[in-house]
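Data card: per-record layout.
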Amino acid sequence: SIYLAESDGGKVTNIAAGGAGNGVVLTSSTGAFRLGTVSALGKVTIKADGGALLDDNGATLNLTAQTAELTARDGVGTSGDPLETTVAELSATVSGDGAPVMINETDGLSSLAVKTKKGDVTLNFSGGPLTFVASTGHLSAPSAAGTALTFETTGSDIVLDNVNAGSASAVTLTAAGVLPDGNGGALNLTA
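The structure for this 191-residue chain is written out next.
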């Protein structure tokens, strides 16, 4: 496994942890991490407690792992340049008010957890997308069958449009306020 602690962010060009179960842990107390390619057969954990996790290689894959845990204050990816991942289990947490989560996953996910504080979320994956529009509070994941979903917003309501995780997958939703119906008489939740 590889462990790297940085005090002021920086650029990660290429990190690979070979061997079964090996992982990568990257942390920064201030500043942004600009990500090139990070890969491991186990878990990748990347934290930017005082900044953002940003894509530094365009449309090229950023993360490859079994599990990825991404945490940042100021956002994970941007709308113009989302992070690209190939993982089975994905967790993304942003703590800054209005900070976005923007990720393109190359295939399906067995589990997905997202936590935001009134930030826009777009997570594209096979079976997705999951979208949260912060200005209206609308949450949608209409075709995420087979993916266990956890979504939390610490700064607003969740207006539930259509979340479909399939009949065999769990869904957990947590809002700072209420969870009103967002699509009239249509089905809101399948789990």
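Known properties of this structure: The chain is about 0% helix and 50% strand. The two ends are 36 Å apart (CA to CA).

See the next section for split statistics.
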